[in-house]
Structure formats: C-alpha cells, structure tokens
Amino acid sequence: MKLFKDKKTSGLMSSPYIAWAVIFILVPLGMVLYYGLTDNAGSFTFQNVARIAEPGYMKALLRSIELSLISTLICFILAYPLGLILSSMKLQRDTFLVTLFILPMWMNFLLRTLTWMTLLEGKGVINTVLTFLHLPTINIINTPGAIILGMVYNFLPFMILPIYNALSRIDENVINAARDLGAGQLQTFLRIILPLSLPGIISGITMVFIPALTTFAISTMLGGSKILLIGNIIEQQFTQVYDWHLGSGLSIVLMIFILINMIIENLADKEGGTF
Amino acid sequence: MKKFFERLYLGILLVFMYAPIVTLIVLSFNSSKSRARWGGFTFKWYLQLFSDEAVASAMINTLSIAVLATIISTIIGTFTCIAMIGLSPKLRSLIMGVTNIPMINADIVTGISLMLLFRFLHISTGFNTILLAHITFNIPFVMLSVIPRIKNMNFYVYEAALDLGATPVYAFVKTLLPDLVPGIVSGALMAFTMSLDDFIITYFTKGSGFETLSTLIYNEVKRGIQPEIYALSAIIFVVVLVLLMVVYRSPSSKSKEK
User: Fold this and answer.
1) Less CB within 10 Å around the terminal CB: N or C of chain A?
2) Do residues B67 and B189 lie in contact, with contact meaning Cβ atoms separated by under 8 Å?
C-alpha cells in the first residue's frame, strides 16, 4: 500500500486531525484530571477523588452501579433471544425487521424518556387504563423501578444491534458441522453459537452499561428529584454548585469504570479475533 | 409451534418499543390537556408548536449544527483516513486509539471535559462551542466507517492509472474514491444522527440562552410537559421513520451491514 511516495506527505496530511484530536480530546481529558487532582489553590490533592467515599456520594455511585447492572442484564435477556430469532430468519425482509427494532434509537433520547413519564404518572395513561379495567394502579414513577424501565427502553437497541450482528455473521456451516458430528441443540448453542457471539454480547454490554451508569437525564425525569445517581451528582457540581474540582474528581472515578470496561472489551476482542 | 413463539416474542417486544410512541402520537391529537382523558380530536397543539418561536429557533439550531458538524467531520475524517494510509502501523493505531476515546468515554465526561476546555480558553459558549464538540464526537464515526473500505481498496488499479499517465489526484478520484463513497455516506449518516440525538454533550457545552431541541425538551420537561411536545415527538418520529425507509431502500444500505 503506497498511495503517497513518502511518509512526509502522509504525516503532513494527517497533522490537522492530529492537532484537532490533541486539542479537543486529549487536552480536555487532561483538564479533568488536573481539576480532579488539585484543590482551589492549585496544589495537588487526592481529596476530590476520595470524597466518593462520603456516604451521600457512595450511595449514589452504588445505586448507579446497581441500577445499570440490572438494566444491562434485562437488556441482554431481552435482546439475545431476539437476536437469535432475527438472525435465523434469513429472509430479504429481515433487514426491515431489524431496522424496526433499532429505529427508536434514532428518535430523540429525551422524547423516548418523556414517553415513559407520560405513561407512568400517577394519573398517567397506564393507570387510567388500569382503573378503567378495575385493576389496581401501579405507582412506579419516581422509584428505582421507573429508572430501570427508562434505561432498558432507551438502551435496548444498543444491545440488540451488536448481538444481532455477531449472530448473523456466524457461518451456518459451522453450526451444521457441529450437528453432523452429533452435537445436540443445547450443545451446539453452548459450544458454538454462544462463544462465537461473545464479542457482540460484550460490546452490547458496554454500550448499555456505560450510558446507564453515567446518565443523569433518565433519573431526573423518571426518578423525580429524590433518587440521585452519580451522573446527577456530577452534573450538579458543574451546573449548580460550580465545584469543578469535586465534579472532576468524581468524574475520574467514572473514568476508572470506563477503563475497566475497555480492558474487558479488548480482552474479549482478542479472543474473538482468532475466528 | 416454535415459529409461533418466535412471532409472539417479536410481537411483544415490538409492542414494548412502539406502544409508548403510539401513545404520544395519540396524545398529540387530544384536545384535553390532561393525559388521562380524551377530550376530542384537535390539531391545535400542532398549530401552537408551529407558532412557537423558541421551538423554531431550537429546531434551526439543531439542524444547522447537525448539518455543519456532519459536513466538517466527514471532510476531516475522510481526509485523515486517506492520509493515514502512508503512516506506519504504529502511528496509525496510536491515532485510532485517541480517536476511539470519545466513543468509549461516557458522554458526561466528554461533555464536562470540553466545557472545562472552553471555559479555560475563555471561548464564550453557544453555537460555536456546540459545533466544535459535535465535530469532535462525529469524526470517530466517520473514520470507523471509512477505514474498512480503505483496507479493501485495490491499489493496483490506482497504480495502473498512474502508469497510464493520470495525475495522482485524477487517478485517486477515478479509481479509489468510488470505493470509499459508501463508507463516507454511511459515516456521514451516522454522524448526522448522532448530532441530532445528542443531549448530554450539548447540555454541557451550550452555555445559557442557547437551546437545541434536546436541551429545550429537557427544560420543558422539568417545568411540566406541554402537549406541544407530543406534537413535536410525533413529527420527529414520522420524519425518522420516512428517512430510515429511504436509507434502507437505497443500494448503499448494504454497507451498513459490514
């Protein structure tokens, strides 16, 4: 591959973007680290990061982890069978069906969340219907349950897409070979289909877990103002309290989670890469 | 029997995903302001929406940022992908590593990091800062969709064109660029939708007094939902539906499946 005779031209042509990436990706992250690791006077401190251990912040972090893990699990349980069904339908119209399942992804994220506000309200649509049918009403708005529902509804397409892609890329001959060699349906699934779709599962989990862990809009809209997630705490530091140092310090904690996630994904990628 | 359960499962999930949206659309025609009562059919929320200047300006802001960010990020992204062909693999993977950061990072961290940068540089927040932020998170989508195309390019045709006397630029445009177009188009589409849909990064980089659709909706929701917003949702849903149908029917859609 030699499009250009010398590396200099390539380097010169890439330099505008390299400069862009440094200014708008690396420097800003460096600033988060700087603010997170300094106090008002500008001297180095771990104080801001360590404040995550304070009961209020710790509680928000643990709650975020709990709710986002539950949401990710539910998304996976819903999406995997769907991926299996969709990938087994080798019809021309399956692209349309797949599109139908990921279409809500293109609708504004806030409108999707707002929908559930309307449905779940005390005198909202669902309860009106339930009352009409003489059934007991449900009151899950402003509870963790509503937040989980909002997360699942919002992020489900992000789980469906990678799982479907991984499953539909599995060579049918591999599955047929397993069957020919005497593997039962369950064995084929456990030893062929599941391992081969693992990269899709992992990327789906990352794509749901990180946004769910760090959201503040869903908890504001569906959790009332009482249930604070770590995203809400950080958002408040920047938009209400104006404590950039603390906000950045708590963001560093989030970045640690993202880093762990990245490492897991990279490991899985290497395993999947042997195929 | 198995088929029946499969259909049933697909059906239940489709209802879960679409029933809420259908409800919003129905409510957008409800003349009663209450969400619990049907007060008769009306178009008044739509009329109110169209005469609402805040919504109109937010709409214009959203669209102009999305269009500009898409064009600029597509140009920068494509240009860089082509330039990277000649770089050493080590440098290439370093660039891609940095490029991946905004995709992997949580939006809230990207948002506050850019906000800190703009505050530090004393750039007044508003249209420009949102545009810069959107270009930044759009470039990775463009590059990640162009790069697979570059890997599959046939450079012999390009060299043949050079041997036959074409100038490098002419040869590139005639032989290599056509192969890249599907990747560029799907990257640009991805960038455009990401830009339209973004809330969190916009929220942190917008400053006060400047609203896009997302931030406007967020403010409205905090104050209490107006039926106008339902009308807006219905319109957005229909537009998205039509656009996706068009995109998926077009021949270039195959590139999306990789």
Assistant:
1) N
2) no
Strand partners, A44: A38
Q: What is the mean pLDDT of residues A246-272?
A: 83
In a domain, B110, yes or no: yes
CA-nearest residue to B14 within chain A is A101
What CATH fold (topology level) applies to the domain A52-273? MetI-like fold (1.10.3720)
Domain coverage including residue B132? 53-231
Number of domains in chain B: 1
Q: Averaged over B31-57, what is the pLDDT?
A: 86
Cα separation, B238 vs A27, in Å, equals 40
Question: pLDDT (tens digit, 9 = 90+) per residue, A45-54?
Answer: 999 999 999 9
Nearest to A35 among B84, B116, B218 (CB): B116
The domain spanning residue B219 has which CATH number? 1.10.3720.10
Per residue in A30-41, is it b (16+ CB within 10 Å) or e — as a string? ebbbbbbbbeee
pLDDT digits (tens, 9 = 90+) for B167-205: 888 888 888 888 899 999 989 988 998 898 899 999 999
Nearest C-alpha of chain B: how many angstroms from A177?
23
Contacts of B95 in chain A (CB under 8 A): 14, 17-18, 21
Question: Residue B85: how many CA atoms within 13 Å on its side-chain side?
Answer: 21
